[in-house]
């Protein structure tokens, strides 16, 4: 199983963006790490929070729950939430649950 990797890239200033780039398996064992990364990115709220799933190979219901929570938390602090790059199994999980219609 590919270990979860997470890195956060920020652009500062008005209209700044926090991009959380995730790779590997986003599942029960690893979802807390993404939750922590999202929380850290929102400590200094950006205009946009982007979660990039292009390198994610697997996402279970725990991972989907973290993504929903990230969406909610971003909205609460006035940031937009963008999910990008989902493909393969993660994209199918989003589509099957209808979450592909929730995230931009």
From TrEMBL:
InterPro entries: Anti-sigma_ant (IPR003658), MlaB-like_STAS (IPR058548), STAS_dom (IPR002645), STAS_dom_sf (IPR036513). Residues 7-104 form the STAS domain. Signal peptide: none annotated. It comes from the Bacteria. PANTHER family: ANTI-SIGMA FACTOR ANTAGONIST TM_1081-RELATED (PTHR33495:SF2), ANTI-SIGMA FACTOR ANTAGONIST TM_1081-RELATED-RELATED (PTHR33495). Belongs to the anti-sigma-factor antagonist family. This is Anti-sigma factor antagonist. It comes from Actinomycetospora straminea.
